[in-house]
Design goal:
The complex is a heterodimer of chains A (441) and B (435).
Chain A (H helix, E strand, L loop, with lengths): L3 E2 L5 H7 L9 H8 L9 H5 L6 H9 L3 H11 L3 H7 L6 H4 L2 H5 L5 H15 L13 E5 L3 H12 L3 E6 L7 H4 L10 H10 L4 E5 L9 H7 L2 E4 L5 E2 L12 E3 H10 L8 E2 L1 E5 L3 H12 L4 E5 L11 H9 L2 E4 L2 E9 L2 E12 L5 E11 L2 E4 L3 E2 L10 E2 L2 E2 L12 E3 L11 H19 L2
Parallel strand pairs in A: 2-3, 2-5, 3-4, 5-19, 7-15, 9-10, 9-15, 10-11
Antiparallel strand pairs in A: 1-8, 6-16, 12-13, 13-14, 17-18
Helix pairs in contact in A: 2-4, 4-5, 4-9, 5-9, 6-9, 10-17, 14-15, 15-16
Chain B lengths: L5 E3 L2 E3 L3 E3 L8 H10 L3 E7 L13 E6 L3 E7 L8 H14 L4 E6 L5 H12 L5 E5 L13 H4 L2 H14 L4 E4 L8 H9 L4 E4 L3 E3 L2 E3 L4 E3 L9 E4 L4 H13 L8 E4 L5 H9 L2 E6 L1 H6 L3 H16 L27 E5 L9 H9 L7 E2 L2 E2 L13 H5 L6 E5 L5 E2 L4 E2 L21
Parallel strand pairs in B: 3-4, 3-16, 4-7, 7-8, 8-9, 9-10, 10-15, 15-16
Antiparallel strand pairs in B: 1-2, 5-6, 6-14, 11-14, 12-13, 17-20, 18-19, 21-22
Helix pairs in contact in B: 3-5, 5-6, 8-10
The chains are: A alpha/beta (441), B alpha/beta (435).
């Protein structure tokens, strides 16, 4: 019988395993670290940040004891700076660009400094920013994820009235439902939502789904502008025999259940878990499976380490947590025993002479009690059928305008996205500025 | 292997590294710890007359810090020793007896009367100490009572007291100078005229080290008020080096032995003072920051430096820099240097660019062919060295002299091999004709 069960750990261990993966800097550590910043000209870190946070300036403010001023510099560019400090792959963004890498291969710990500043601010203040006088214009924002929240905050600041319509029961998007629990502990995602909404002028209507409870056309006629921050709705299928077998789960759904559970000991996890995929979701699922007490967790990815969507840092985080990463294997069949999964059959892959991924014919079987699918998500376009798409996602221009008048879009649902929180924030903000300009004419 | 032994005014010590008269030398316990750690000598904390002075019972020190809270400058409002004279004299005798190979100089400060000086000197004689240092330097507290820098600021007093002291003792007399004057050469000349065997400098600099922005009082703050203090530590070293250099090259005091003081933390600092002519150096703030153990680094570093340069004793390089201190007007205006950025060492922080662009000569690029790259534009570079100083990577930017005969792209003129200075420059209204 497959070994899938909840409550594998002693009660105390759940708290330990799901505590902050990177404890915050103390005030002393923050000052010492801030001193390492060279205050570069035309700072490469800022240029590497999708939201262009003025990083040298906020770090300098930390160094002079002006931590709240530092946070204001961050929020001015990125209202979700608190979550970005936790979930950004800084090692491929600001910290990769830090000139200290060239100097001594040790960047300034920008992410942790940002967290220090934003945590300090959020603890002391209920929100950031003061609304401009009301304009009387109304904007609908569909989706309360990072893109929608950033867009709504920026619009609210400029005096517009915003209604966020969210399909799920609460706001937050992937910050609340998607990322690993140990990256946003102590209900931070909801605290941040409250912080963003605290600016005023934003109403959230949750539990209302586009295409089910209302149509895009309704919004276009009832509001002056519409922003679509829909995210991605479907998990890609493996497309192999046995995919429907009991014990095969969507990693995204499994993580969501884990994030929303009040009691992590109630989450079922296999003794031997195989995670198929190579992105952040695969790592988040694999590490959390391990933290829930799985005995063996393997990430199986069809290409090599360099091609993985998960950063090198995330790969190492998985390995440090005892996850094995197997490269160059593609799933061919989910093997079942009785009605449940018992193994996954893989074929070894390689690049052929022209550099294309190809099967080698050599098979590999991994015994598994539970299989998690994490090979990406897709945008389901049905709900916005009148909007032009590009590559399966909503087509937008530089200002995040869609093909429909009065409709903007951003975040993971648009073409060209890198599926990063920080990029979604940038999209939301850019769209808001464009909407504001349009409404100000 | 280099020999660090020092003979300063006949006072011998195993190395030229002494502790300055200050809190670290206030009593036997500290001084013996210093000698065990390897210090070559000490100047005992300044003795005064009984009844002893009293110190404030609140904070005595304030500091400024550079990055990572590295102590860059220290300010104090502590007075001379607040222990009974008898106790200090007894301990001085005990320490000298137990550590005969170390230098033990006694610092003194008493009211400006002949009998006061002669009376205390007679008592110091009995301790077997090696020398006297006259404290004409402390700028705080004691100066309000007509002592310390109040004496050091009046050359006539310096000469007078130095003379009294020389008459009263077998010991060499060192006059410790205050930097709180306009021209350090005058007090040095006065000391020499009074018969002093040497000068030591600098004492601390008048300072308010910080202002508390909540209480609006100077730091350190005593019950809501603050008094100016004496400033020392690494930040004062350039000021002290200049004063040492001025005395060393002044024809009237040339050759007068100098004990260098001011911001010495490492062998390198000490070597710089010696290169300017100092026979010994005195350290205080560095040991108050790191403890006595730093002398191990100083001894080893100095030996390595001397070995690498073929100096077997400190006399081999003492004073070698004096002849190269010049008045500005004699600097060679035909010497032309350009900054050069080593692209392999460059980490692309851009500080050189922004410093030059915002505040200087717009002589450094930030973009070349669309790529972030910092290069010196020789046609704009005046060779000011600012980029070298702001660059975080040592050795990345260097100043390269232009060879005579080449053309300076900034001026279009050929670099002359001839030495030419301001005194003969056509723009100088007082120029004399070049020979």
């Amino acid at each position: 019988m497959p070994d899938i069960s909840a409550g594998r750990l002693a009660a105390d261990d759940y708290g330990k395993n799901f505590s902050d993966v990177h404890p915050p800097l103390s005030a002393h550590e923050a000052v010492v670290e801030s001193d390492r910043c060279y205050f570069c000209f035309d700072a490469p870190c800022t240029n590497a940040c999708p939201t262009s946070i003025d990083i040298p300036l906020f770090i300098r403010k930390i160094g002079t004891g002006n931590v709240e001023g530092a946070a204001e510099t961050i929020f001015e560019s990125n209202i979700l700076g608190g979550m970005c400090a936790r979930v950004c792959p800084t090692e491929t963004l600001c910290e990769e660009a830090c000139v200290r890498n060239a100097a001594e291969e040790k960047p300034v710990r920008i992410g942790l400094l940002q967290r220090h500043a934003t945590d300090t601010y959020i603890e002391r203040h209920s929100t950031y920013g003061v609304r401009a006088p009301a304009t009387g214009r109304k904007v609908a924002v569909v989706g309360a994820g990072p893109a929608g929240l950033a867009c709504a905050h920026e619009l609210a600041l400029r005096g517009h009235d915003v209604t966020i319509i969210e399909a799920r029961g609460k706001a937050g998007g992937l910050n609340e439902f998607g990322i690993a629990a140990y990256k946003a502990t102590d209900g931070f995602a909801q605290r941040e939502v409250d912080f963003v909404l605290g600016v005023g002028g934003i109403t959230v209507e949750s539990g209302k789904a586009l295409g089910r409870d209302f149509a895009l056309a309704d919004l276009r006629s009832n509001y002056d502008a519409v922003f679509l921050g829909l995210g991605l709705q479907a998990v890609n299928a493996l497309g192999v025999e046995g995919e429907e077998t009991a014990g095969v789960v969507d990693a995204v759904r499994w993580i969501e259940d884990l994030r929303q559970s009040q009691d992590k000991s109630a989450i079922e996890v296999g003794s031997r878990v195989v995670v198929i995929g190579g992105g952040m979701t695969a790592v988040d699922a694999a590490v959390q499976a391990k933290k829930l007490g799985a005995d063996e967790v393997t990430i199986a990815y069809r290409r090599g380490p360099a091609e993985m969507g998960a950063s090198r840092y995330e790969q190492e985080l998985a390995q440090v947590n005892g996850v094995r990463i197997l490269h160059w294997v593609a799933p061919r069949q989910v093997v079942s025993e009785g009605n449940a999964v018992s193994a996954v059959e893989f074929e070894r892959t390689a690049l052929d002479a022209s550099g294309r991924l190809t099967g080698t014919g050599r098979a590999l079987r991994l015994t598994a009690d539970q299989v998690m699918k994490a090979i990406g998500q897709t945008f389901v376009s049905g709900v916005v059928e009148t909007v032009a798409l590009d590559g399966g996602r909503i087509a937008v221009d530089e200002e995040m305008r869609t093909s429909l008048a009065k409709v903007w879009a951003g975040g993971d649902c648009v073409r060209g996205g890198e599926d990063l929180t920080v990029q979604a924030v940038d999209h939301g903000k850019r769209a808001a500025l464009s909407i504001h300009a349009a409404l100000s004419v | 292997m280099a020999d660090l032994r020092s003979n300063f005014l006949g006072i011998k010590s195993p190395n030229p590294f002494w502790l300055a008269s200050a809190p670290p030398t206030d009593k036997k316990y500290n001084v013996e710890r210093a000698f065990r750690a390897g210090w070559g000598g000490v100047v005992w904390k300044t003795l005064g007359e009984d009844p002893a002075v009293v110190n404030v019972n609140g904070p005595r020190y304030g500091a400024i810090h550079s990055g990572d809270r590295r102590l860059a400058g220290l300010n104090n409002i502590e007075l001379i020793t607040d222990r009974p004279l008898e106790l200090n004299l007894r301990e001085i005798a005990e320490v000298k007896k137990a550590w005969p190979d170390r230098a033990l100089v006694v610092s003194l400060m008493v009211p400006c009367e002949e009998r006061n000086w002669k009376s205390i000197i007679a008592r110091v004689e009995e301790t077997g100490a090696d020398g006297l240092e006259l404290n004409f330097g402390c700028p705080h507290g004691m100066s309000e009572r007509g002592m310390g820098s109040a004496v050091g600021q009046v050359p006539e007093y310096i000469e007078m007291v130095a003379r009294w002291c020389k008459e009263a003792t077998r010991m060499p007399v060192i006059v410790k100078l205050t930097p709180n004057i306009t021209d350090i050469r005058y007090p040095a000349r006065a000391a020499k005229k009074g018969g002093a065997d040497a000068v030591s400098l600098i004492n601390t600099i008048n300072s308010i080290v910080a202002v508390d922005l909540d209480s609006f009082a100077p730091v350190p703050t005593i019950d809501g008020k603050g008094s100016h203090g004496g400033y020392c530590g690494p930040a004062v070293k350039p000021i002290a080096l200049n004063m040492v250099g001025e005395i060393a090259r002044d024809p009237e005091t040339y050759g007068l032995p100098i004990s260098g003081i001011g911001g010495i933390e490492t062998w390198r600092d000490a070597a710089e003072y010696i290169a300017l002519g100092c026979g010994t150096v005195q350290v205080c703030t560095a040991v108050m920051t790191y403890g006595f153990k730093i002398v191990e680094e100083m001894i080893d570093g100095m030996k390595k430096y001397m070995d690498s340069h073929g100096f077997s004793t400190i006399e081999d390089f003492r004073g070698l820099a004096i002849k190269n201190i010049s008045d500005w007007k004699y600097l060679n205006l035909n010497y032309i240097a350009k900054a050069k950025i080593d692209q392999d060492l460059c980490i692309k922080c851009g500080r050189c660019h922004i410093a030059c662009e915002d505040t200087s000569h717009q002589a450094i690029t930030h973009m070349v062919d669309g790529v972030r790259r910092f290069e010196v534009k020789d046609e704009e570079c005046v060779g000011c060295n600012l980029c070298v100083n702001v660059c975080p990577v040592e050795g990345c930017i260097t100043m390269q002299p232009m060879a005579p005969g080449s053309v300076d792209p900034r001026t279009g003129k050929v670099v002359s091999p001839q030495y030419a200075n301001w005194t003969t420059h056509p723009n100088n209204p007082s120029a004399v004709a070049a020979e």
